[in-house]
Amino acid sequence: MPIRLHSTRPSQRWDYVHAVPWRVLSHRFSFVFFAALAFGLLVLGRVQPMVVEGARTHILDGLTPVLDAIARPMSIAENVTTTVKSYLALRGENEKLRADNAQLKQWQTAVMSLQHENRELHNLLHFKIEPGFAYITARVIADTGGPFVRSLVITAGKLDGVREGMAAMTGDGLIGRVIEAGDWSSRILLITDLNSRIPVTITGSGDRAILAGDNSASPKLYYLPQDTVLPPGARVMTSGHGGVFPPNLPVGMVQDLGHNTYAVVPAADLGRITYVRLVDFNLKGGAFNPLSAKMQAETKKR
Fold this sequence. Notes:
Elements: H1 10-47, H2 49-126, E1 134-143, E2 151-154, E3 167-169, E4 174-181, E5 186-190, E6 197-202, E7 208-212, E8 220-222, E9 235-238, E10 250-258, E11 261-266, E12 275-280, H3 290-301
Antiparallel strand pairs: 1-2, 1-12, 2-5, 3-4, 3-12, 4-5, 6-7, 6-9, 7-8, 9-10, 10-11
């Protein structure tokens, strides 16, 4: 196919005609050259592998800083672009969600607090006390529970009529008794405390026992009649013996631990008490303070 020349100048025609074959030849010879170079490197790698590996390592070491310098700005630019886009897209939404979340938390806290307070006060209103018994309603301000003590601190003291030995009740039942009374505050020993000992009776069977705390969530029943079998869920009430509490105060329900061992699940949730009612049953034995007795016994031993 003849080559059509658009230029009318003879020198331009000569340059164009001779340039085309040289380009074709250069492409052909470059292919042959690189093929021969690759073959030579392959043969050299077989004959002198250490030389080729050393050369490759030096070339790679020389190119690494260059490649790293080229890639680093691109990576930084990509990260910055992604961060800016994400920030601009989520900033407004995050601010709105943050405000909504804070408002919802405030409402949730207020509602939960009011519900809990309302439930406990409602239970106290349903707790009926025989006429002639004095009682005081107080708020719990501290739970001094620990590995060795189970007690509560309340906002009522001697100036409010509190005395040691008063029974501490909730709408669900007995939780303990007052062991220390200050002018403005008092301490309640819970029925789960290691120092708590309460004479009780089991409804239905009429069996009597001693409810002893062991610092666990469920105090144990001791001194039951031999071969006694208690049905799980049977109600446990105070027996009135010992002059500490009057009879028939609800304490909890029987829990079968197996091997003729029984515990009592307290009727009240001792971990969530906000208000308590202190009842003075005018019992002389109610003034017994187990902590003081223990300290006096230790002092005598010394």
